[in-house]
Amino acid sequence: MKKNIAIIMGGYSSEVEISLKSGEIVYQHLNRDLYNPYKVHILKDKWIVVSDNNEYLINKHDFSTAINGKHITFDCVFNAIHGHPGENGVILAYLELLDIKHTSAPFYQMALTFNKRDTLSVVKANGINTATSIFLDKGDTIDIEHIIKKVGLPCFVKPNNAGSSFGISKVSKKEQLIPAIEIAFKEDRETLIEEFLDGTEISVGVIEYQNEVKVLPMTEIVSENDFFDYEAKYQGKSSEITPARISKIQHDNATEIAKKVYKILNISGFSRSEYIFIGDEPYFLEMNTVPGLTAESLLPQQAEKAGISLENLFGNAIESSLNPSKGGK
Description:
By secondary structure, the chain is of the alpha+beta class. The chain is built from 10 helices and 18 strands. The protein is globular. The model is unreliable at 228-235 (pLDDT under 50).
């Protein structure tokens, strides 16, 4: 019997439009012989199933809907929400309370990895290289001299809980620091300031595939802008080279570290992490547990290079969730 799959997309953050595009890609590529996919828009003002230009309300008591008089429940939820409430685990906690399976890691792991500071604390404690950083909460006294002394210039200022490079600034001059912090605080009440690491940047996809943790072909990021910002990610302002032009020792080191980080953070499902090489050693920057799935996104490009079609990539995530004894949650 076909399984009913709710593809949740949208969300409450600045990433809503990107998420809707990701969700649409998933909807297009799910195998109709195995699944009945439904596009579920999770928006601030409404939760709806969108079908044939009609909207059907989601019953939040049990995450069901009624379409043309037929009561629909879901066997699995495919999480394509970037940011809040999908990537930070909030909606996953709700689904887990309802005992509805989903394609992401458990809600605690999602909440942890969405918080850049806390993620860095965990991986650092396990011997993973990271950039020097300072954390600010909204309302904290900002000591510019102390910040510059610790992280140096240039440095990066980024929201602690946000994605798609929204609110991130590269600061090269002392007078740019306060405006950059204010930009970051528009996205989140917590801000992370990190030293600039000058080296080759790579993006590494790690997934559960056919019951094993698999590191996908790595992507080298060469941005036309100062860094891999929103324009570089989604508007073609970068070169994304897969596989990355790195040495064998760099590749082997990154593979080992990427697998280790995935396991340290107890992730399941999709992940895509950024690293910068200092010499041959990869320095961990951050992890995305709901990476972009659009045509411009890196994880689908990496999967293609690994010989994994989008149909198989998405179907595997669903099957791993439905059959946890076979490698899922």
